[in-house]
Fold these 2 entries.
Entry 1:
Amino acid sequence: MNGFTAVILAAGEGTRMKSDIPKVLHRVCGIPMLGHVINAAKKAGAGKIVVVVGKGADEVKKAFEGQGVNFVVQAEQKGTGHALMQARKEAEGDGIILVLYGDMPLVTAESIAAMVQFHSEHRPAATVMTARVQDPTGYGRIIRDKLRVLAIREEKDALPEEKTINEINSGFYCFDASLVFEALTKVKNDNRQGEFYLTDVVEIFNKEGRDVLAFEAADPLEISGINDRCQLAFAQKVMQKRIIERWMKEGVTFVNPDTCMVDVNVTIGRDTIIYPGVLLEGETHIGGGCLIVGPSRIKDSSIGNNSEIIMSQILESTVADGVKIGPFSNLRPGCRISEEVKIGDFVEIKNTSVGPGSKVPHLSYVGDAVIGRKVNIGAGTIFVNYDGYKKHQTMVEDGAFIGCNSNLIAPVTVKSGSYVAAGSTITREVPEDSLAVARARQENIIGWAEKRRKKIKEEKIEGGIRNNG
Ligand code: UD1
Ligand code: CA
């Protein structure tokens, strides 16, 4: 079945999205809707993929650079037939052309493969994927004679009795690649929308005595198109359910799947438990045996096995095995957290590596640092990385202990095995195995409080006498 060419029509305006972004670039479960269609075509065995772009062509091309997709531009949107015609040079030949619409991301590779299989067994001029739906409004209606499709009538051009037909055109077709372009030259735009309809080739083939067959979609949900933001949300919901169910079948527990968001490229290991309100976005990989409690957001990050993330955010970072994060930690981009580390409550950490077994348990800002093994960063420690002009690095070597409420003014190094006394402001290197104290020395003035109380008492008595006299 290999070697068919997929042509994806994606040049339409998408007016109803009310957007400055081309419609097919709006995201569903983390990637542009067109990406889902391309992936389904690839997975179904398409040897070549041609995307017809129009509105925002450059943006669309850029979004799919390096993904093995060919683009042709339809400068003016004159209809779906005119759109396919633009791919003539790229797609005409001996084989099969599969046509898909770029705004229908719920189509699955399995359905496409099944239709291509059906088409290659029967070899008609065209196969149309159809679906029976409750409400056919807005779709092209299938006019049939048993297995054969005689015509597809657009809603706007349909007669009242044709409008009652509830079998619709999905917008997915297989064509004989040596026939369809010739047929397209015969399509006229004498319809209510003044467009060259791809669907008109069905009648043209019939007139030529060729076969057009219907192939019913297994699941009508697959052919839901996206024209506005409500349909975008609907597609997100359907796909989200599919993705989460897939991971549940792989052994992941979702306590309340309806409250979670998992993008299409996320992977999750078995026996990981995901509580309500967890968002796993972009290229995120979660190991096995983890516990993630929401609200949490993990984006473009990888988490090892048996780690715990409680009510935290992790962006563009890597976290190893057996790590505990949160509650309320914020890991900004560029963190590399080694095994058995603890990043505790109200800790913000950025562009920092933390060595095995180290702890940053409470209330700290850690930026641009390299922290060694078994380091303890006391509560309230601030890594002072920014001088208002440049960012600087702090090194805290193996086994160091930073007392609470210290400031480490970068660039600075705390060498291995040394201590920083609580409340210190460190501006110079702390040598190995030493103690740095950098705060005003405490002085006790004996009896000062007693004297003060006595003085206040005397002043009150004097004042009383004056007021009474
Ligand atoms: C189309 C079908 C209709 C079917 C429905 C399924 C036609 C004439 N009608 O109607 O039978 O039930 O899809 O959703 O094909 N496009 C271009 N260039 C154009 C016009 C459209 O690339 O000049 C692309 C659009 O970006 C979109 C797709 O073709 O991805 C479908 O176009 P759209 O205008 O949405 O067609 P419908 O009216 O929905
Ligand atoms: Ca449409």
Note: The longest strand covers residues 167-176.
Entry 2:
Amino acid sequence: MINPDDLSCDFERSFGLTPRVYRAPGRVNLIGEHTDYNDGFVMPMALDRSTWVAAAPRADRALVVASREYRETITLDLDCHPPYPTESWIDYVRGIAAVLDGSGGPERAAPHSQDAAPARHLPDMPRAPDSPDVARPFQGRVTGADMLIASDVPIGAGLSSSAALEIACGYALLDLAGMPIDLDALARAGQRAEHEFVGIRCGIMDQMIACHGETSGALFLDTRTLQHRSLPLPASLRVVVGNTMVHHELASSEYNARRADCEAGVQTLSSRFPHVRALRDASLPELEGVRARMSDRVYRRCRHVITENARVEEAAEALVGSDFVRFGRLMDQSHHSLRADYAVTSAELDAMSAIARELDGVYGARMTGGGFGGCIVALADASRVDAIEVELRARYEAATGRRPDVWVCTAGAGVSRVK
Ligand code: GLA
């Protein structure tokens, strides 16, 4: 765990100033995977692990950013935009800073324009419909800053360490500049930073939960309207996360490919059913109605998203009605659909979730996050959770030879200034 006082001291030693300290959490998604860029429903829970930023303003337009995890310090100039992505952690910081500053890179977008051009070196990155111009809610420019970043969200494990980084840095930059902070707009800014500066056409789930997480439990989020409501977790339940220890390597190219498949599906669906603007609007009978006009791959991608959206709604009902068995069954079905139809699981994710499902006291288990490695999430009975942790660790290691990280999560709060 990161201690904000230690981080402050480290900052003072490096930069000679007393910083403000901010944090934003990682997340685990209980159900609703790959639905967010289809205007659908998700049920994430913020983790009690965060990315922390100690920061102090500078008089110039430089961002001097030190990372504890990567043991490097990189200096950015807010007025100069060299080619990106550099495929380094700094892209997230550069991205959120440029979006909030309204400077957006060499091809700077005209303010208020929905058709802003993406950066020149990302030719395959058309501006996504869910990536609106977000410069407007943030009038003004950010200031230069010295920043020290530290994180206890595992990196590359599908627990959204990148959104935690963007949101923590974005919140810090707005606060240092004395700009008002609209959390939905900050979430959109983080999403846009990933689209335009990292090259991942992600949805809005991770940024929204990093902004709006609640310590009582999960959120039910409608990613079309951004409306959300809390889904507190009862004391008899525990959320267990298991890290397969396989990094999600393929994640960015395959992620964008899945998104393109969904868009192809929407095009076919909407030519017959004009009310379908996103897969969120389509039903299974409608999908069957156009099945002959799409590839089997696109059909299966769409089927996953349509059935997953229905599962999230049913899971929310089950949780409110304390029907944990039903909730668990929906998690299992979600995993199956992500494996068979969406093809984003891995042998390790399949193995670990199957092991978890067999354990006494586990209601259900599934992969969580983008997939291709990373973590599983299981919903478990509180009274059994110690044994579950031990068994899951032992059996996964026996099955794969990898020693996993397994822990019981407590829900964390959304982004905040700590001191
Ligand atoms: C990643 C993305 C999210 C979401 C998930 C899959 O975490 O950042 O927007 O699409 O994958 O549900």
Note: The longest strand covers residues 44-57.
